[in-house]
Amino acid sequence: MRHGIGLIVKVARPFEGSRWRHPFGSTARHLIRKAPCPVWILREDAPAGPTKILVAVDLVTDDTTRLTLCDKLLQVGTTLAALGDASLRVAHAWELWAEFAGRAHPGVASLPRAVQRAKLRARERVDAFVERHRPALRAEDVYCIHGKPEAVLPELIVAERVDLLVMGSIGRVGLGSSLLGERAEEILNRVECPVLVVKPDGFVSPLSDRVSDPKA
């Protein structure tokens, strides 16, 4: 913040004797939550440049901040892909909360129809996103996946051999003045590829007061 740094890059190293399972330790998470700029977490064995980039977007919302962040994530992913001649894909995962409410849910009898309607709405949102970003984005470049994002996105990353995940960090500011979001936290717990985490426009670091204090 003092020097106007626009990107933090950190190499995450596994503990001695451990395997690459959860490379995002406490230091990486603190940086992701509190740094005012994007944070790129690499692995020691990461290639010199990514060859397959996946941008994760959350389109099941009418929140302007989140939708604007989706646009920003695509811009970041497109720029990186062009710089390194990498392939770029976008993933939107959707779910219907009633699917996980159990059989006692009063609407369970019509659940298949509700799921189909949710699928159509998700596809409409994806189509609108693609239309807004033509010609840089094509419909065939976007995965519209049914399932919990924290489950289906890591599976997609492994299946497609993605070597960079671009994702956003929007959540509630809570204990430890963190801003990441439960879903994003869980995704970090399950992926092994490098991750670039981007903040929404207007994000204010919880450490900004310390920077303005000369005694900090």
Give an account of the 3D structure.
It is a single chain. The chain is α/β, with parallel strands linked by helices. The chain contains 6 helices and 7 strands, in the order E-H-E-E-H-E-H-E-H-E-H-E-H. It is globular. 27% of the residues are buried.
Question: Spatial order of the strands in the main sheet?
Answer: 1-2-7-6-3-4-5
**Coarse morphology:** globular
| Mean pLDDT across every amino acid position | 81
Strand content: 15-25%
**CATH architecture annotation:** 3-Layer(aba) Sandwich
Distance between the termini: 13 Å
The structural class is alpha/beta
Tally of separate domains: 1
Rg, Å, rounded: 18 Å
Helix content: 25-40%
Brief overview:
The chain is α/β, with parallel strands linked by helices and 216 residues long.
Describe the secondary structure blueprint for this structure:
Blueprint: E1 8-12, H1 26-34, E2 39-43, E3 52-56, H2 64-84, E4 87-94, H3 111-132, E5 142-146, H4 149-160, E6 164-168, H5 182-190, E7 195-198, H6 208-212
Key attributes of the depicted protein:
216 residues, alpha/beta, seven-stranded mixed β-sheet, 6 helices, Rossmann fold, 17% strand, single chain, globular
